[in-house]
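User: Teach me something about this protein's shape.
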Amino acid sequence: MPLVAGVDSSTQSCKVVIRDAETGALIRQGRAPHPDGTEVHPDAWWDALRAAVDAAGGLADVAAVSVAGQQHGMVCLDESGQVVRPALLWNDTRSAGAAADLIAEAGGGEPGRRFWADAVGLVPVASFTATKLRWLARHEPANAARVAAVCLPHDWLTWRLAGAPGLTALRTDRGDASGTGYWSPRTGEYRLDLLERAFGRVPRVPAVLGPAEVAGELDRSVFADPAGRSGAEAVLLGPGTGDNAAAALGVGAGPGDVVVSLGTSGTVFAVSDVPAADVAGAVAGFADATGRFLPLVCTLNAARVLDAAATMLGVDLDTLSELALSAAPGADGLVLVPYLEGERTPDRPLATGAVHGLTLRTAAPAHLARAAVEGMLCALADGLDALLAQGARADRIILVGGGARSAAVRRIAPQVFGRPVVVPPPGEYVADGAARQAAWVALGGATPPEWSVSGLAEFAAEPVPAVREGYARARDQVVDRVPPA
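Assistant: First, the predicted structure itself:
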């Protein structure tokens, strides 16, 4: 019974699961928090990974490890492998101007967007690594001059697990590489000309591995096993992937499934056999972790919209859910547009949230609670529409992430999405996807092992078009903050 480990190094925390490679049965798990902020020194991720591994009982008895990580984060290393500056994360919007410049330099407007969509399957926004590199080159030239290599959070952690054996040993995978803005899912090659366009020169980038290629071996000296065990066999390192690709692998998403993940960010994505190239820029044409493609829409605002609403009302999340379900669909015309941290889709990095339709009748806790849930879901339903326009199928919605634990979210989602909703039991599906990849590496074979997800809850309801119609009327009335000097 070989065991494997899957790591989810997310924005908020690090989770580690140890599973049976053949059946997927959970053996043990651990977690540790990450610091807040939109820029974080990678050493904090390493410390959290070590703590989560210890909490999960160590790695002495596992055959393989894979790391899934938050996408896009810019990790810059100097010639000696030292981190140049704290990593800029996916939700750091300071490079919005750089994104606009890259589009303008490619022709501006639709021609500029088409250039990028055709080249790498996405249109630059502040989230992507290429825009962050442009920001670094323009605003911190001394740091930029020190950069010898650039990689992503999961790449860096895999490299550290291997003992940081030199910059030439950096490895990544298709899924995470496809979120940089300088790797093409369609051709499977780096666009180093676009990296040079963004940064002014071409630093070293990780080699891109196939879905089950070995990225190296675990350096056992970096971990002291808490149980005092010492493994004799080499522990293989999988190529790892981005968090969304891992989630798709973890829930077993197939054709016709659309995954909606409600975490710090909100994502809507589907597994596809063909790459996407959305000139409008709403859909990012990512690759997945199996050799196929993962067209994806991402919003900056998801589960934390519920947290903010609960804070405003002075209640906990369970009470917020009860309040939301006590109000009628559409909250009698109260609409919350959830751009609380700016927004990525649509590309409104300086937008603010807004409440519309406030009257004496709707100035009630239940109405605000309902509007918060519906607003969050409507923003993601806009993403679903964009996926459908790119040819995706949506026979059902698989709802995952911390926000999916809300009873109100589960029951209101089919009214907003207009499709049946399936909710797996609460779990660490990104870490599970990484573990399934590790099992694929350990066991070999042409496809990942078949792991079943049991305990699915199904929710269905008649669509309520008025909810999305009211949201659409309010959506474009939000205002932008004054840009910082």
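Now, about its shape. The first helix runs from residue 42 to 55. The chain has a mean pLDDT of 95. If you'd like, I can walk through any region in more detail.
User: That's plenty for now, thanks!
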